[in-house]
Amino acid sequence: MVASVREPGGRYVRHRLAVSELYVSLHEAEREGLLELLAFQAEPDCWRPMTDSLGGQTLLKPDAFARVGIGAYEDQYFIEVDLSTESRSVIARKLKTYVSYWNSGIEQQASGVFPRVVLITNSEERKGSLVEVCEHMPAETWQLFTITTSTTSWPSSPANLAVITTGAKQRPCHESA
Question: What pTM did the predictor assign?
Answer without folding.
Answer: 0.82
